[in-house]
Amino acid sequence: MKAPLLYLCLTLIVTNLYAQNQELVYDWETDRKYTKNINDESSALILLKNHFQYDHRYENENLVVYETIHKIYRANNDEALQSVNRIYIPLNNTIDITKVRARTITKSGKVIELDENNIKQVKDENNGAGYKIFAIEGGEIGSEIEFFYTKRSYVSYFGRGYYQFKFPVISSSFRLTSPENLKFDFKSYNGLAEVQEIDSEGYNVYELKEENIEPLQEESFSNYDANRKRLEYKLAYNTASGNQRLFTWSDAGKRVFEIIYPFKDTEVKAVKSFLQELKVKNIDNLLERFLFVEHHIKTNFYIDEQADDNSTQLDVSIKNRFTNKKGFARLMIGVLNELDITNEIIMTTSRSEIPFDGDFDTWNYLGEYLIYLPQSKQYVAPSNFETRVGYWPPEFSSVEGLFIKKMEFEGSTVPIAQVKKIPALPYERNFDNLSIQVSFSEELDKNIIKAERSFLGYNSNFVKLNYLYSDDEEKEEYIKNLIEFLGPGAEITKAEIREPKTEFNEWSLPITINGEFTSSEYIEQAGDILLFNVGGLIGLQSELYQENERKTNVENVYNRGYLRRIEIDLPKGYTIQNADDLNMNVKADEGGEEIFLFKSTYNVEGSKLNITIDEYYNRISFPVERFEEFRKVINAAADWNKITLVLEPNN
């Protein structure tokens, strides 16, 4: 994910005190032989060498960077070979490419080098930068595919590199050089080796080396990229201008403020006219006024990430009904200001990709916009069309963010930036509940089922958005699918939404779907005995397998709950022989609080069997050392899904 346009238009003035250039020469080992005796021959793909190099130099008083990427792969099957025999060189931010080399070394030692005439350039229609592409010739199973390229690029003051993959890495390295007055800071994550500063005359030299990095596979309830070994780095000091740290969170706050908050007179006038047109003064409560406007924008405007910066001007975005993410942030802030609702802009990043780290001030973390309303303690996701005030994308919760608020100081408005935690909503705010009534046909060969399925929170938002933008036929099919989850292949006689609740003041309310159907899937007869698959009434449940040792912490997308109430009219003359199988109580505690729970209880009143199942997950993160406790709660639902009641006739 790219950081937003915070620093793309920012020019760092670097004093050129060290104009001498150290000659840049990077090349591969000319007579390299096929690699012998590596640690993991069994892996389909092995990365023998993974090298990143960034050499910063002054040229004609401008700072540029020479980026070198050098990789050597061993491909041990056809699929692995196909994945690495086509090389792409991205051209974004590139001035020119200074060198490209590639070759194949077969197991027999034959060397086939790249013919540079085979390098093609492809234009990217979205951003115009495009990429160069070439195929590696002569590859066969067991071959080593080697390439490196160096390109001269415009400088970026922040960088990120990954050093762990789904295959083993034998040797990994990083090198960054810069003129003596420009000093960089680094931070390694997830056990990656630390960067070391190397003594060198005239230039700063930073290096990282690590051997034999184990592969990391994707795991359920885990964010893959967030757990990979990676390096973050930034330009931290320009000693020619003093010893003040560059690009701090305070600097970021000022830059965001400059981008978002100042509004031209034409923009303020456009917002006033917009609100008058919507007749918001007919709504008494200020927050409800904003709810109304937010809902109108998110149901009548659309997002275009390729829209130019002019689209972010409020008079333009209101007229054209579209803008980009920054434009939606400015639009919502403009509306809030006009409604006199105190607000703070937040910059953060997706927890599912790279969690924000407030202890290392790289602006690469400033990728997404949220808005905080301190008076009501609510959050707004300005460009997310599923959510409304009080809900925001779950990947931007339980993560830090940079909060920027306006303060009046000596007659001027100044931004104050502070890193704070963005909370996650509790499980009570996100549920998928079921209420089911079951009876048996006279022939005892099928069940008649009435189901009520209620959604709140993220599940509800998704259902409402689909409903809002579907035609009648699509709505009917969508609702049926939500009922068929309970009884695949069932004969549905009724499926309807009780009330869509898609208006501005209803969006945060639950949405309920009613269904009626008959099914023979739950009943099996064995002589006089009835086998009733009661577990199937809650729908198919995921089961969490873990064949290998768990490597990463548990990471839930969001906290959530499932309350299920099942009422069964038992057939006359039958008694349940194994009712106690319905009782389950599996949980995980933290500080005396039950944070994960699957609990099922029952009682029999005459011929009615009443079952209550309470399942919830009320922590986002959970340590890998306690993974088995979490797994047992997840699997409890799958185990309950397999319960079959034995009903025997009374004498």
TrEMBL record:
Pfam families in UniProt: DUF3857 (PF12969)
InterPro entries: DUF3857
Organism: Roseivirga misakiensis
Superkingdom assignment: Bacteria
Full protein name: DUF3857 domain-containing protein
Signal peptide segment: 1-19
Keywords from the UniProt entry: Signal
DUF3857 domain span: 66-215
